[in-house]
Amino acid sequence: MIIVTGAAGFIASNLIKKLNSEGFNHIIAVDKFDNADKNKNLEGLKIQEKVERDVFFNWLEKQDPKMIEFIFHLGARTDTTEFDKELLSQLNTEYSKKIWLKCIEMQIPLVYASSAATYGLGELGYDDDESKIPHLKPLNPYGVSKNEFDIWALNQKVKPFYWTGLKFFNVYGPGEYHKGRMASVILHAYRQISESGKMKLFRSHNPEFKDGEQMRDFVFVNDVVDVMIWLMHHRKNSGIYNLGSGKARTFLDLVKAVFKSMKMKEDISFIDTPEDIRDKYQYFTEANMEKLKSIGYPKDFTSLEEGVDQYLQNIKK
């Protein structure tokens, strides 16, 4: 069995789809299955059992550890505008600690989701140097909750025999349709352009960046899934790793790629960044991917233009 938490979510459902394609069909899907739109991500996938998030640890107690091959812990409260610190601590930090301890007790290898939100404004850069992690300054409670678990994990004297934390950058691709405001700019762009023929981007409130030239490391979900499955097979070099494309691109680049894929004339304007996120807005992120490459990860990452086109072809289907 392979356990995937957050199973109905965007990244996890893509992971299960790829695992199925490689012959892994004994999937234990863990989530809070209360969102009909989100649950559509699991339609057609081969899943052995669905387990509610709140009873997962009771379920786990009854299992033979020898039957569990791997845990991918991708479940989390991922809303960067969530300010209920207690909720974020409970779902993102404390729940992850319980999974970590069970992986030690039951000798199960673990890959878990961290986040590039831990880097804050990038004052210390975007290097996955573990010595810098205690000094990072996330901009929101979500990033804090993820960073707190990373710090806790690094400080543990006893660890799972294999474990990896992945700092996801701006992941995009099929399966994020349920995410509302938290969906990628690509999905928002496709919807906005489909409805109006136009796209509005956030204006820059930082004199160092022109409007639309704010930069992000956009990474295609297929690449993220490939890395996770490679780590499952690799099972060496435990630690915390960046997972982005390694190349920052502007929002203008992204939206132009959407217009091109939709075969429509560009029409881009700018609006003020909402005040509730303006002082917590990242103007630049770029994953240093040398650490993952140094342990032997062999694949190249999908270009933004290619990834956008693949994603939009999927949406059209």
Automatic annotation (TrEMBL):
Cofactor comment: Binds 1 NADP(+) per subunit.
EC number: 5.1.3.20
Transmembrane parts of this sequence: none
Keywords, sorted A to Z: Carbohydrate metabolism, Isomerase, NADP
Domain NAD-dependent epimerase/dehydratase, residue spans: 2-244
CDD domains in UniProt: ADP_GME_SDR_e
Catalytic activity field: ADP-D-glycero-beta-D-manno-heptose = ADP-L-glycero-beta-D-manno-heptose
Record carries keyword NADP: yes
Gene Ontology molecular function: any one: NADP binding
Residues the record lists as binding NADP(+): 10-11, 31-32, 38, 53, 74-78, 146, 171, 179
Example GO biological process: carbohydrate metabolic process
Cofactors demanded by this protein: NADP(+)
Binding site for substrate: 170, 181, 188, 202-205, 216, 281
Similarity field: Belongs to the NAD(P)-dependent epimerase/dehydratase family. HldD subfamily.
UniProt xrefs under HAMAP family: Heptose_epimerase
Entry text on domains: Contains a large N-terminal NADP-binding domain, and a smaller C-terminal substrate-binding domain.
Described purpose of this protein according to its UniProt entry: Catalyzes the interconversion between ADP-D-glycero-beta-D-manno-heptose and ADP-L-glycero-beta-D-manno-heptose via an epimerization at carbon 6 of the heptose.
Listed name of the protein: ADP-L-glycero-D-manno-heptose-6-epimerase
The organism of origin for this protein: Marivirga arenosa
Annotated gene: rfaD
